[in-house]
Design goal:
single chain; about 900 residues; mainly beta; Immunoglobulin-like; 22-stranded antiparallel β-barrel; 13 helices; about 15% helix; CarboxyPept-like_regulatory; TonB-dep_rcpt-like
Length: about 900
Amino acid sequence: MKKLLLLFILNCCIWTALDAQVIRGIIKNSATREPAHAVSVRLKNSSEGTYSDDRGRFQLSTKRKLPITLLISSIGYEPKEVEVLQFNTPIEISLDPGAILGQEVVVSASRVVQKKLSSPVTIEQISSKEISNSPQLNYMDMIQGLRGVDVTVSSIGFTSISTRGFNTSGNTNFTQIVDGMDNQAPGLNFPLGSAISLTQLDVDNIEVLSGASSALYGSRGLNGTMVMTGKDPFKYQGLSVLVTQGVNHVNNKNNGDPVAPSPYYDWAIRYAKKVNDRLAFKVNSQYTQAKDWVANDSTNKSGPGSRFTDPNYNGVNFYGGATSTDINPFLEGALAGEPALAPIIEPLLAKPNYVARTGYPEFGYLDNKARLFKINAELRYKLNAKVEAIMSGTYGTGNIVYTNDTRYQLKDFKVGQYRLELKSDNWFVRTYTTQENSGRTVIAGPTAQYINESWKTSYDGGTGGWYPEYTAGLLNALANGSSLTDAHLAARAFADQGRAELGSPRFNQLKDSITNTPISEGGTLFLDRSKLYNAEAQYNFSDMVKFMSVIAGVNWRLYSLNSKNTLFPDKDKPINVKEYSAYVQLGKRLAADKLNLNASFRYDKNTLFSSPKVTSRASAVYEPVKENFIRFSYQNAYSFPSNIQALQNTMSGYNSFSSGGSSLLLNDNYQFDKYPPYTLESVSAYQQSNDPTKLTRFEYNDIKPQSVNAFELGYAALIGKRVLFDVLGYYSTWKNFIGYANVANTPGTNDVTAFKDHSTYIQYNIAFNGGQMVNTYGYAASVSVDLSHNFLAKVNYFSDHIKNKNNSQINNFNTPKYHINMEFGNSGFGKKQEWSFGTTLRYKPGYYYVVSGGLAAGRVPTSAVIDAQLSYKLIKARSGIRLGATNITNKYYSTGVANPNIGAVYYVTYAYNIL
């Protein structure tokens, strides 16, 4: 074995030396005389080529005879041809900076390389150069400024992305693909954001497809797809370092922020090496640490009062108040034991008197020390001039918070993604796996309810418990002449005696005990160890079929759901869910290549559902005048219900559950076939009125896939190489739209009077299909202007709307009436263009937001967020210093109800060897 390994290494090292001559040189920017990184160097009329390294140097081995013509090209430079007359003599090549607008190329729109300007569908892009010049701290923040993109920021490190208005944390209808791998959590099915995506230094480009994209990328692409591509170590070489030191929670007291000013750290390092013309590798690592933003919305979910005026107070970001009951039975018991209290008690019994347990605020309850660490390694080996083998692995871990039916602290989670791939110009074969470990996830609401029950049970069945004590305290205060409001406050203080206070040893002990006990054993710990396995292949038949372009592919996927009965009904063994897919894309150019027609078809089968799904996309792009493109597309997209939407079987409260919409699951686990559910809203109305006719049955069917038919018309033009203009409109029709409903039933009895006692019924949050058609529509425009001398200005506007929505369904259409984003910057000014700056503005008017899972609903205030950065290059040191701030005005804003308010981060960054 050792001999074989030695022979392999020797082969890698001497392969380029056999019968080959070497062309060497250096490429520089003619304006600044800086080395030009990652510039393509190709032999004319040949596939042979290489790239300049981080010092602008290149070396190309060839067996061809002199003279040889080199083709030198890179976006941002004018292309150049250079004639080589002798080998082994270094040559110096100067490239003139050129126009960038309209030159961007994309792949995700049609699975082939094409200009973004001529894309058949709406697509937005971020390049590595834009990332390095951006005032934002990371590329996930940059995405907020793209046209058509909505985001929900749950915390530092957890940003959920969507398009076309459907916006929520953990969006399962948005696909995130990293180097060809679906970046979703295997069990929860939502994209993992930045947890195991590319490090800041390893992003080559990001492409965001707005709206439906199932025909190309499969199930769950209804709300869009983001395709991220890492840097090729053959192209991007050398050591790069990015160190950012900042401070956030500044001027916190004036903004109601409970956290003191705190340091922000973000460190990234990348090293890539081209060993020879066949072998290259790269290693990446990034660590981020900061005091997280805190969600502190005190809005009462039970009504208009506050925690000082409403005994049934249940705050949005106060956890534990979901335990609530009508204390009238306790009042009646007191009256029976002491008839003399009748003048006090009888007026109270005229209506229900609901009282909630005392909740805990998020600050001091959830650990707000955010940290993320990820590491990536990749090895590439060229088997020959056309075939390349790739092996890569990414591992991420950390402590972050996200929002769903409550706030979840992902503590010490671990996710790994590992890939093997063979690829050529015309085909690829790829297999990968994603391995998930939920760590010690803290479920804020249920954990707080259990803590309350642990230090003092709500009711012990006799005369003891928190509610009997509360009742006694209430009557005592009223008997002593207190007002009803003051009496309730005194009653709470009396019942809360001995309470486990935040941060106390007892509180920490109870919290640790509950969060370390699995849900299936009466605690709140997830034991999710789900895995995803994927294999796929694609072939481009265009060289074989001359009259049109043909691309075809197949995909196989296995979800191995393994939560030990804490997330899915998988107590005995993991649940395996399989998907099978096949697709074909056809393209034809007509009218002297001015008209480009494309059609895509995809077949998908999921083993949870009996019927397969067939989806399609058709598009036409016409160029009536050079650099002017009219595009029209029809896309049919679908989504099988996610594993969570179909199979979730999780307690999410002291007496409530989150459930998938499978009728088999509902009947077997929750006995819906025997004991029918009622809408939670009608149960509340019954409790308040004592009128059982107000109860409304919840009618449900087995959950089905949802689908959308989307039409889009757009126009894009490059005017005088200085102005890039793009405008679009779309209209979509949704069928079997999947949303959520809050319901309740009384297992074991059909006696609806059981609803009067809060402890005898169970609440459910159920995924289900809305019955009616839902329509969405919108429009957008963007303008980019090259102002010369490296000045660039951009502005975009977009607006999304919904109609015919099911008001009984939480549909996650959370977006303002319009967005305005602006950018202005200069990528190089001064004598040697060593200075640069960038500014952005994101404006959103206030809008109504409903949290997925029913946690809360309310209005998100208007926000205007300005980011800015000034940079200086130390050319000889190949370094740069950046001074900047995000949300520079420090006016706190939020991207969704129950999510944190976000203030400024002021920072300084040192960058070494970054393009």
